[in-house]
Amino acid sequence: QVQLVESGGGLVQAGGSLRLSCAASGTIFNINAPAWYRQIPGKQRELVANITSGGSTQFADSVKGRFTISNSWNMVYLQMNSLKPDDTAVYYCSAKILGRDYWGQGTQVTVSA
């Protein structure tokens, strides 16, 4: 069974950093279209960062210059620097594997003022 599992969330003070990881298990195939989303209770899930099929990275305006996304064969990473209280959310990774969309279960990131 293919799964995406996030890790690395937690509580951090404003200005701090966290690195989220997402591991794909149960598959020998590369992940495609890796992305990170986040969601605050009562709000829609929003795209934070993604890697296009051409290998370029894209970021939400709110995180440009502070977050970076990278991936290897079956891993996706989100490096988050200069964190702000507004970054508090549940972060989800997503990817396509053999054309099917997969989502992780989410990891909580809380940034205190």
Question: How is this structure best described in words?
Answer:
- With 113 residues, the chain is an all-beta fold.
- Helix content is 0%, strand content 57%.
- It contains no helices and eleven strands.
- The protein has strands spanning 3-7, 10-13, 18-25, 32-39, 46-51, 57-59, 67-71, 75-80, 89-97, 100-103, 107-112.
- The strands form two sheets. Strands 2, 4, 5, 6, 9, 10 and 11 form a seven-stranded mixed sheet that branches.
- Strand 5 and strand 6 (57-59) form a beta hairpin.
- It is globular.
- It starts with a strand and ends with a strand.
- The mean pLDDT is 95.
Short description:
By secondary structure, the chain is mostly beta strands. Helices cover 0% and strands 57% of the residues. The model has no long low-confidence stretch (mean pLDDT 95).
List the helices and strands and how they pair.
Layout: E1 3-7, E2 10-13, E3 18-25, E4 32-39, E5 46-51, E6 57-59, E7 67-71, E8 75-80, E9 89-97, E10 100-103, E11 107-112
Parallel strand pairs: 2-11
Antiparallel strand pairs: 1-3, 3-8, 4-5, 4-9, 5-6, 7-8, 9-10, 9-11
Search tags:
mainly beta; four-stranded antiparallel sheet; 11 strands
Give the integer mean of the pLDDT values: 95
Unreliable stretches, pLDDT < 50, 5 or more residues?
A: none
Estimate the strand proportion.
Answer: over 45%
Topology, number of strands: 11
Shape: globular
Query: Major β-sheet, in short?
Result: 7 strands, mixed
Oligomer: single chain
Q: Share of helix among residues?
A: under 10%
Q: Which class of secondary structure composition applies to the elements?
A: mainly beta
What is the CA-based Rg, rounded?
13 Å
Q: Write down the secondary-structure element order.
A: EEEEEEEEEEE
Q: What distance separates the N and C termini? A: 40 Å
